[in-house]
Amino acid sequence: MSSPRRRVSAPFSALVDNEVFAVDERSAQLIVRSTADVVIIDIDGRQIPGQTSQGVAVINVSDLDADTSYRATIRTESGEELDTVEVRTRPTLGPIRARFATISDVHLGTDSFGGGRSITDDHNEPYPLRCGRSAITEASDWGAEVLLVKGDLTDTGAASDWDLAQEMFADITIPFMFTPGNHDVWKSRDLEPAVGAGLLGLPDAPLHFHDLDGVRLVLADTSKPNRGTGDLARNAEALKELVSVDQRVFLGLHHNIQRAPVTWFWPPGIPSTNALPVVESLASINPALFISSGHTHRNRVHWLGPGEQIPFTEVSATSDYPGVWAAYEVGERGIRQTVRRIADPDATSWTEKTRAALFGVWPRWSQGRLADRCVDLVDE
């Protein structure tokens, strides 16, 4: 197995009014900004309507052909043309064998966001709950067979946060796994994550795995009680056993893998001296490895391990701009990540408000480029 040519992410991404946010081999997700209540996308001889919320519409376009270019025309209901966007679908991975999804950084229990917690919500339901629930529904409807929750499910580990977690997962119809993040082990917590997971019917273990056709899913606990930083090395030996399989392995973490031994941006993750030797040892056992984290509330891709052949992605938060869940497809030729915005207007009404955080700089940090969000690991 090997990666495509290495791509290096810019620290900030350029933002445009209308854009392709996500694309796979058969579908695309377009973001349209407009003062109109409803916008229309003309593409492939079809007209697809989208409802705006907080001035934005998140529109999913399906039934496209793989590896094909399209021109999408955006207009109002009255026919006024607003913009055109070029869409290019991704090459096929061959027959799809498995689908799964991830969410992270839901932060159940918080009620505000941004510097000084100045951005507040006036909805009758807490924004982390409705964002999380909408992400779960959309992932299930897309066809995910398993959901991985990559930490910071709660904001402070309070008992009331875990009450909201039970409400959020009450109607889930697919298996799910959870590993804690630093907020779940916050020093002010009422419940240990193991107790909270038990309330959700989940086992207490530092590592979890689930086998699908063609891929093993692994979640590793990198949290350190009362600390913001993470630790991957403590589970190294057990991880080596779990990746010793004759199939692809997806490794989900909460903390990001730092590329340096010291923290050069906030929040602190796993120091390179702790994480990179583990990644190299795992890659030497199974080069068909794909690693992904949350924690940083941003979308980025890096290439790690021997020859920089192992993709490591950071996936932004479910509960603030851009407000996402990540879809994964495993085909005969590889594994694909497609980060999608939550399309439910009840969620975008909040996530668009958080776009204003840090004097408008937040989206330039959190959104990433299309190549950061949509990542393939394919066979040569």
List the helices and strands and how they pair.
Elements: E1 19-23, E2 28-33, E3 38-43, E4 46-51, E5 56-61, E6 69-76, E7 81-88, E8 96-103, E9 112-113, E10 119-120, H1 127-142, E11 147-150, H2 159-168, E12 176-179, H3 193-199, E13 207-212, E14 215-220, H4 236-243, E15 248-252, H5 272-285, E16 289-293, E17 300-304, E18 310-314, E19 324-331, E20 334-341, H6 345-351, H7 362-366, H8 370-373, E21 374-378
Parallel strand pairs: 8-11, 11-12, 14-15, 15-16, 16-18
Antiparallel strand pairs: 1-2, 2-5, 3-4, 3-6, 6-7, 8-19, 9-10, 13-14, 17-18, 19-20, 20-21
Helix pairs in contact: 1-2, 1-6, 4-5
Give an account of the 3D structure.
With 380 residues, the protein is α+β, with helices and mostly antiparallel strands. The protein has two domains: 26-88, Sandwich (Immunoglobulin-like); 96-378, Metallo-dependent phosphatases (Purple Acid Phosphatase, chain A, domain 2, 4-Layer Sandwich). The protein has helices at 127-142, 159-168, 193-199, 236-243, 272-285, 345-351, 362-366, 370-373, and strands spanning 19-23, 28-33, 38-43, 46-51, 56-61, 69-76, 81-88, 96-103, 112-113, 119-120, 147-150, 176-179, 207-212, 215-220, 248-252, 289-293, 300-304, 310-314, 324-331, 334-341, 374-378. It has a six-stranded mixed sheet. The protein has a six-stranded mixed sheet with strand order 13-14-15-16-18-17. The chain has a four-stranded antiparallel sheet with strand order 4-3-6-7, with no helix packed on it. The radius of gyration is 20 Å and the shape is globular. The N and C termini lie close together (7 Å).
